Amino acid sequence: MNRKKLADEAGGVDKLLQKETASGKRRMAFLDLMLDMHAKGDLPLQGIQEEVDTFTFEAHDTTSASMNWFLHLMGTNPDIQEKVQREVDEVYGEADRPITYEDLGRLKFLEACIKETLRMYPSVPIQARLLTEDTKIGKSWCSVD
Q1: How many CA atoms within 13 Å lie on the side-chain side of 21?
Q2: What is the residue range of the signal peptide feature (predicted)?
Q3: CA pair distance 43, 2, nearest whole angstrom
Q4: C-alpha angle with apex 65: 62 to 69, nearest 5 degrees?
Q5: Mean pLDDT over all residues of the chain?
Q6: CB under 8 Å to 37, separation ≥6 — which residues?
């Protein structure tokens, strides 16, 4: 499936965001865009299924790896773990309610710990690229061969 085609179908990402902001409509999710294209006959169901599978499985692996590293770092740094626990207790306390988006916005130290985990142990440490044609970078040439 061609992601550029999806953006073009929506009139370009910038246009889509401008239209939604002006009209007050909610932004369409990527899946909504694909389903809309399917309804117009521009995208087969198999293409949608492949994209959903990719998002689901790729996100699962990277999320679980990141969570493992975060928990490892908390376990090996008990002083930091205690500070995170104090912050959660201060924000959430003994409340018998679901955590809200506002609660999450107040967990600044926890957010910093998560970001530091992702910095130290990125889920995708390298993005390899393959040259398809000779390319000049600065004063040097990179050859396909």
Answers
A1: 6
A2: none
A3: 10
A4: 135
A5: 82
A6: 5, 6, 9, 43
pTM of the model as a whole: 0.54
Complete DSSP assignment for 15-67: HHHHHHHHHTPPPPPHHHHHHHHHHTTSS-HHHHHHHHHHHHHHHHHHHHHHH
Contact 46, 22 (CB under 8 A): no
Helices 78-92 & 108-120 angle (0-180, nearest 10): 140
Contact at 8 Å (CB) between 70 and 114? yes
